[in-house]
Design goal:
The chain has helices at residues 3-11, 45-52, 65-68, 74-86, 92-99, 104-112; strands at residues 25-28, 40-43, 125-126, 132-133, 139-141, 145-147, 152-154, 159-160, 164-165, 172-177, 180-185, 189-191. The protein is an alpha+beta fold. The protein has a three-stranded antiparallel β-sheet, with no helix packed on it. α4 (74-86) packs across α6 (104-112).
Amino acid sequence: MSLEEALRERSGGRCELCGSEEETSVFEVPPNADGSAEQSVWLCGVCREQIEEPESADPNHWRCLNDSMWSQVPAVQVMAWRMLTRLSSEGWPQDLLDMLYLDDETLAWAQAGEPGDDDEDAVQHLDSNGALLQAGDTVVLTKDLNVKGANFTAKRGTAVRNISLVRDNPEQIEGRVNGQQIVILTQFVKKSG
């Protein structure tokens, strides 16, 4: 059985993401597609175009992922995760992403094919001395910080362990101080050790 026949049979001749029967064809899921049905999906022309040209994506078209994200086919799960991640700023896709469970291997595959994974494109978080910060690092506060809404001051010299990075803002990190999870500006910390 050819790849096309296998995918057509698996999908019932419908796009595995939106259910359309228009202009359907094989789409090999990057980055390591080997030409097998396990690493390919059956897509319509509209889904293919919006995947290949992200700037043309119509968020309302992708509401179909509410159903297709529950597919038992890992390649379909990967494509659903990628599109929901791409559109997460719309609001509703983030709610679906919060419900979507991918096993570790499938999640790694989904993340591997996302643009922006290149080191040069990644947001870099630098401390007050220009040292690169990474999730899990320990930092020390370089000045007293009034913590809004928590009624305390985080004192200079306080160590903040196991920080997390604010994904799309290179000037912010998160960490626990006095049992509270707070956002801290990178200009007020220095990397420890």
